[in-house]
């Protein structure tokens, strides 16, 4: 069972050592705000910390949960009575106020196992304003060995009334070399790894997700269509026929990414207004796809005509 114990990623060891040092010296804050972009592993870190804090091993200096004590077994079975995970009940939905109210009684009772009581909120960004107010009331009245672990993908939007009561731990996008090293377990194709890293903007868990499916292959196919259009090897109408039945939002994001990279590559002062106008148009097209129901074939034809027009402007 030891292999099942969650542990921090290599790029999180600095934060891990800091928090364990606080734990060992008895100054663990009663609320931690773990912030950073999505897909860098904050939830993994938080769960690893939950296991470590609920481990009842007498060896306090162990780096990770022992995996053998009663606390660890309850954690691994997913039913530790001193741990509550609050997350949206349905994917994409908000955390409801009743979920926060339910925690109030948990906070006021003493721990079943005589150790820590932990409430993890994942993420606070999915809480309604009313739920945040309810949370604030509980945060103001910490009871003994209780710790709140609050995850946020958008720390700038967390109310200052909450952040002021939390110790903040930040998780930036890790260094590229660390991510590449970690991703080597997912693929030994260096070229594919670089593509996944590029596509995910360096976010390790997103890059891993891309490597596990056919996303990179689909993106290569779309980029090939754009290349063929650029050099006049296919017409916008023919290209639209190849795309109109595919996942439109996914293609639109790659299209925007391609244009964004193009603008970045030309940032040596050679500004081309058409690139920016077109980028703006793609943003609007993305919005149409979400809000209305445009004819995909016509939409792609128009966007591919614009692309070929841009190629003529830039190649000439
Ligand atoms: Zn243990």
Structure characterization notes:
This protein has helices at residues 13-24, 42-54, 70-76, 97-108, 129-140, 160-163, 176-183, 190-199, 204-212, 215-230, 236-243, 248-265, 273-291, 296-315, and strands at residues 31-35, 83-86, 117-121, 146-152, 167-170. The protein has 316 residues and is an alpha/beta fold. It has two domains: 10-172, Rossmann fold (3-Layer(aba) Sandwich); 214-315. A five-stranded parallel sheet has the order 2-3-4-1-5, with helices on both faces. It is elongated, with a radius of gyration of 24 Å. The protein starts with 12 loop residues before the first helix and ends with a helix. 30% of the residues are buried. The structure holds zinc ion. Zinc ion is lined by residues 55-57, 65-66, 68-69, 71-72.
Short description:
This protein is an alpha/beta fold and 316 residues long. It has helices at residues 13-24, 42-54, 70-76, 97-108, 129-140, 160-163, 176-183, 190-199, 204-212, 215-230, 236-243, 248-265, 273-291, 296-315; strands at 31-35, 83-86, 117-121, 146-152, 167-170.
């Amino acid at each position: 069972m030891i292999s099942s114990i969650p542990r921090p990623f290599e790029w999180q060891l600095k934060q891990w050592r800091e928090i364990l040092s606080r734990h060992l010296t008895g100054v663990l804050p009663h609320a931690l705000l773990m912030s950073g972009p999505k897909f860098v592993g904050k939830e993994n870190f938080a769960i690893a910390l939950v296991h470590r804090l609920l481990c009842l091993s007498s060896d306090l200096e162990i780096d990770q949960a022992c995996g053998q004590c009663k606390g660890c077994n309850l954690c691994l079975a997913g039913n530790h009575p001193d741990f509550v995970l609050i997350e949206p009940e349905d994917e994409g939905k908000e955390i409801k106020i009743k979920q926060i109210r339910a925690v109030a009684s948990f906070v006021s009772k003493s721990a079943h196992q005589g150790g820590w009581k932990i409430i993890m909120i994942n993420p606070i960004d999915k809480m309604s304003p009313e739920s945040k107010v309810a949370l604030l009331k509980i945060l103001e009245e910490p009871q003994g060995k209780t710790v709140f672990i609050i995850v946020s993908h958008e720390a700038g939007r967390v109310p200052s009334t909450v952040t002021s009561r939390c110790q903040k731990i930040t998780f930036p996008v890790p260094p590229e070399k660390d991510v590449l090293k970690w991703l080597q377990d997912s693929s030994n194709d260096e070229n594919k790894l670089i593509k996944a890293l590029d596509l995910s903007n360096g976010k390790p868990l997103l890059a891993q997700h891309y490597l596990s499916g056919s996303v990179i292959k689909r993106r290569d196919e779309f980029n090939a269509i754009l290349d063929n259009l650029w050099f006049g090897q296919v017409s916008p109408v023919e290209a639209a026929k190849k795309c109109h039945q595919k996942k439109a939002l996914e293609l639109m994001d790659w299209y925007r990414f391609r244009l964004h990279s193009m603008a970045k590559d030309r940032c040596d002062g050679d500004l081309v207004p058409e690139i920016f106008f077109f980028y703006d148009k793609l943003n609007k097209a993305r919005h149409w796809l979400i809000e209305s129901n445009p004819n995909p074939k016509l939409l792609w034809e128009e966007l591919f005509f614009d692309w070929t027009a841009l190629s003529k402007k830039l190649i000439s």
